[in-house]
Amino acid sequence: MVAAAEAQTATDLRKQDIVDGVSVENLSMERNGGYIAIDMLWDLLGLDVDANRAVLLTPWLVNGNDSLGLQSVGVYGRRRYYFYVRNGESMLSGKDETSYKASEKPDAIEYRNLVPYAEWMNGSVLSLHRSDYGCCNTLLAEQNGLLGQYTEAFFPELVYVHPQGQIEKRDSLEGSAFIDFPVDQTVIYPGYRRNTAELGKIQSSIDSVRSDTDITITSVWLKGYASPESPYVHNQELAIGRTAALKKHIQQLYRFEGDVITTDYEPEDWAGLRRYVERSNLGHREEIIALIDGDLEPDAREWKIKSTYPEEYRFLLQNCYPALRRTDYRIAYTIRNYSDVEEIKRIMRERPQKLSLNEFYLVAQEYEPGTDEFAEVFETAVRMFPDDTVANLNAANAAMRRGDLTGAERYLAKTGDSPEAVYARGALAIRQKDYDGARRYLNEAKSLGLEQAAITLEQLGKNDINEYKYH
To answer: Its domain of life (predicted)?
Structure first.
């Protein structure tokens, strides 16, 4: 992007005449992950262009046989300008050129350009090329002026960890259904009260995986709970019978083979009651918790709460006990492994939870480190495996590579103390210019047997520690 400058902003960098009629100040070249941002202020006050001439100004990055021309700025004399406008043609360097009629050019422009980074750019020279044209696009003169040189600071080799491939990928869906039964009954009536929606929770969970040909359901686990009112033995009968009824209902819908559906029960959910009371503002909250935690038998415990704290008991009966009567369910399944990278890319976009860390790693190898695509793979992986040390380590390295040091530090907090994790902290310390800290981490990683740590320590001693140099 090239924008006209409202006023010169140079305060600390010396203005330099680069080519005839153009001086430059405030030059900066900053690496930001997969890109280099190039900024400078051009003073065009001394640039004169005859009516039938045109001047094209183009910055170039050059390093040996590699080069890249950046966005050009064209200044056109009156006749040349109207020639292009009248004939509907692009300007000299094409449609992306920023163009001015000589009589209307600003005295100064802020030149900004963001270009994808390539390894050859480290050590490249930035120059400003001036080309003068006459009629019929005849090149009349050329001039080249040195702007600066981009030299990247020492950037340590980052050590990514290749996750182990899983022999079998396992996952599960979990939830709770609050199925209503008529008093003292264990028969399920699908249309009774909220049952259509509550049974639908379990069915939609099963259907969401059963319809996927990559997934095989291995078990459906059901656990029924009752609330503490009524005698314990009766509640036990209800919990067993109602869970059995739900198993029968699901089996009739899906015809699972063998013992895929398993059941369990909890006659009275005292743990759930305790959690509710602990989070509540009930009067006598601490006393009720003490009774729940005490040694009384369930029926005696429930009677003690009811008789000692009747107001609180009525509140619990109305607001807490219904939620304790529920069935927890878990649908466990396996997912097939993927080896085709294009298929993995598609699944990463559509259902990344189906991928293993190893599959994320495979697709990351398709992208250049430092690019947005490379970082996205590891960021998606760590979202799927937020507490996995390897996922966090690779995400930290990817963030570091693109210049996101804050993100890298956040991921490194969950990487553990493996040699690779200690090394990554040393690499981050280098990027943060904490060279004493970097040496401590690198020496520790070296003592843990990581060969790259010794190499990086040696390189750190040989390199000038300056993040970027401009000449």
So the answer is: Bacteria
Distance of CA 237 to the CA centre of its chain: 49
Distance CA 199, CA 264 (A): 18
| 54-74 per-position pLDDT tens digit | 999 999 999 999 999 999 999
State how far the Cα of 23 lies from the Cα of 463, in Å rounded to an integer: 33
How far apart CA 339 and CA 342 sit, in angstroms, is 9
Burial pattern 31-60, b for ≥16 Cβ within 10 A else e, equals bebbbbebebbbbbeebebeeebbbbbbbb
The residue among 128, 150, 246 whose CA lies nearest residue 198 is 246
Calculate the alpha carbon distances from 458 to 3, 41, 147, 430, 446 in Å: 45, 39, 33, 13, 12
> Which pLDDT score is estimated for 465?
45
Q: Which amino acid is it at 200?
A: G
- pLDDT digit string (tens) for 325-369? 888 999 999 999 998 999 999 999 999 999 999 999 999 999 888
- In 3D, which of 163, 43, 12, 173 has the Cα closest to residue 108? 43
Q: What is the mean pLDDT of the chain?
A: 87
Domain 2-152 CATH class label? mainly beta
pLDDT tens digit sequence for 271-300: 999 999 999 999 899 999 999 999 999 999
CATH of 170-333, one of 3.40.50.740, 3.40.50.1580, 3.30.230.10, 3.30.1330.60: 3.30.1330.60
- What are the backbone angles phi and psi of residue 255, rounded to the nearest 5°? 55, 50
pLDDT digits (tens, 9 = 90+) for 132-143: 998 878 899 999
For 338-469, give the CATH class: mainly alpha
Kindly report which listed range (175-179, 448-452, 465-469) carries the lowest average pLDDT score. Answer: 465-469
For the chain, which residues make up each domain, given as ranges? 2-152, 170-333, 338-469
Nearest to 422 by CA among 399, 401, 452, 398: 452
